[in-house]
Write a structure and sequence with these properties.
By secondary structure, the chain is mostly helical. 46% of the residues lie in helices and 6% in strands. Helix 5 (113-129) links the parallel strand 4 and strand 5 (132-136). Helix 16 packs across helix 17. The longest helix has 29 residues, at 268-296.
Length: 529
């Protein structure tokens, strides 16, 4: 069927519901729908979703840019994006009332609890209407997964599959006007302090992918943890993968293609570059691995994974003040404060700084992980629920299967910002503090001129709170009951060695490639993309 075919209002349509798959390339629902009839490409702006506590103005600003780019791509095919604002079932019912609908198409989504409940309601609506809802997989996440055996190999197979071509053209559908995209304030989203929002849209994502594969990845492995260099050395593709302007599959295939090109080149530089891309490829595996956790156990978003850790952080009178100081970058610890301020301004942090921020909040401030997790969710432009919540729990020590890592925020400053350039950029109050004291300004003989006046005193004692946190967290990790529950969690959610690179891990003697391995008792997972 082509754009030149003759249609009437009585001809049924195929609705393609775009969610977090804002592209026309490698889009199976769009390709399949277009082969069957007229397509209504639909995006529903859902105010109730944007009212959720994990959403923010920066999320909408990035999403809006992606939608504008998607609309342009669809317009070139002959049918622009239809935007509607409201509840999904109300919008779908209005379209189904206006014209006959054959099928509803979309990609599967592993979102937050709100999107899950919405999808349950949409499924019920579709059944009541006798409309088939066909969902296609777009990541390596598998629904109704019985266990993780073979998961990594299945990921490899899916990522190697041929990608569907976008439709050559779409027949225009009359009688379905599109609403304008709202502004953040229209959705009740207040300004959140971002000053350098990452550009959204597929064109921006492709530019990032190209530059990463061809020159930026050269320093990826050695610079990814640097607060100064990581913003360039990392791919910065994570928000595009989260919103689906790029698919995981096309990204994986592009990386492998570039690695093949490099294999034909001689010299240590080409080998090093290929090694950096191999590391990045491993992180694409981990991207879907963590999303699978939330898909298999949605309660990870709101409840501690290991039952022994529930109630571990019941809240305290100091929580509100601690949370406010931590979020604002006003804790009195310069490197942490610089990281939190950088995040607020840019919407991004490298993985080490993210882990450090959660560690300080969860252990030194002993804040409930859900509180701090919600703040970070709103701050990260690349917020992906399936990665975010398992990672927050992992860094907070509530999974029962991961190594407890308590970051020393002072040591991290010396290690990652030895010259103090990052701290001086983001904590200008310390301009007069000599380099030798920048990461510990309270040690400076003239500290009284700055600390406690224009820069806050330390809100906690790092050494004391670290010792207290270790005592608290390890006290619940004893005994056979704890380990029995941890073994059950490992069996359900733990990684399988095959196909997912794990630095610093030796295979247990006699283990087959797909046997379960302890996910990380001796190694820190990194998800820098």
């Amino acid at each position: 069927m082509t754009a030149n075919s003759v249609h009437t209002r009585c001809d049924p349509v195929e609705i393609v519901w775009f969610k977090r798959d804002l592209r026309i390339e490698d889009h199976a629902p769009l390709a399949m729908a277009a082969s069957r009839g007229r397509v209504v490409p639909l995006y529903i702006v859902e105010p109730d979703l944007w009212a959720e506590p994990d959403q923010s103005a920066r999320h909408w600003a990035f999403t809006r840019a992606c939608l504008e780019d998607l609309d342009s791509a669809l317009a070139r095919l002959g049918q622009r994006l239809v935007v509607r604002v409201g509840r999904a079932i109300d919008i779908l019912e209005a379209i189904a009332t206006a014209m006959p609908v054959n099928r509803l198409w979309s990609h599967e989504e592993t979102g937050n609890a709100w999107t899950f409940r919405r999808d349950v309601a949409v499924a019920a609506w579709a059944r009541s209407r006798g409309i088939a809802w066909i969902e296609a997989r777009q990541t390596g996440v598998q629904r109704r997964l019985a266990d993780r055996n073979g998961w990594a190999k299945a990921w490899d197979r899916q990522m190697a599959e041929q990608m569907p071509d976008p439709p050559r053209e779409l027949s225009p559908v009359a009688g379905l006007p599109s609403e304008p995209l709202p502004e953040a304030c229209d959705l009740g989203l207040a300004p959140d302090g971002i000053v350098a929002l990452q550009p959204g849209g597929r064109a921006a994502g492709l530019d990032l992918l190209h530059s990463f594969l061809n020159w930026r990845a050269a320093t990826y492995r050695r610079a990814m943890s640097s607060p100064l260099d990581g913003a360039t050395a990392c791919s910065r593709l994570s928000p595009h993968l989260a919103l689906g302007t790029l698919s995981v599959r096309e990204t994986t295939q592009a990386v492998k293609h570039r690695m093949t090109e490099l294999s034909g080149e001689r010299g240590g530089e080409a080998r090093a570059y290929a090694g950096a891309l191999a590391s990045f490829l491993g992180r694409l595996h981990w991207h879907c691995h963590f999303m699978q956790k939330l898909e298999s156990e949605p309660s990870i978003e709101v409840r501690e994974l290991h039952p022994a850790t529930r109630g571990l952080r019941p809240g305290a009178p100091t929580d509100a003040a601690y949370l406010s100081a931590w979020a604002a970058g006003e804790t009195g610890y310069p490197f942490l404060d610089a990281s939190m301020r950088f995040l607020k301004a840019t919407g991004w942090l490298n993985f080490r700084m993210r882990a450090m921020a959660v560690s300080f909040a969860s252990y030194n401030l002993w804040l409930p992980w859900r509180q701090t997790g919600l703040h970070l969710a709103r701050q990260f432009t690349d917020y992906e629920p399936g990665i975010h919540w398992p990672q927050v729990q992992m860094q907070s020590g509530t999974t029962g299967i991961n190594t407890i890592r308590i970051y020393n925020v002072v040591k991290q400053g010396y290690d990652q910002d030895p010259a103090g350039l990052f701290v001086r950029r983001w904590v200008p109050e310390l301009a007069d503090v000599p380099d030798a004291y920048l990461h510990e300004p309270w040690r400076w003989p003239c500290a009284g001129h700055v600390v406690g006046r224009i820069y806050p005193e330390r809100i906690i004692d790092l050494k004391v709170t670290t010792a207290e946190a270790k005592q608290r967290i390890f006290s619940v990790r004893k005994g056979s009951e704890f380990h029995a529950a941890a073994d059950a969690i490992q069996a359900k959610h733990g990684s399988r060695k095959s196909g997912i690179p794990m630095t610093g891990r030796r295979r247990r003697p006699g283990a087959t490639p797909d046997e379960s391995q302890p996910e990380t008792r001796s190694v820190q997972l990194k998800l820098d993309l």
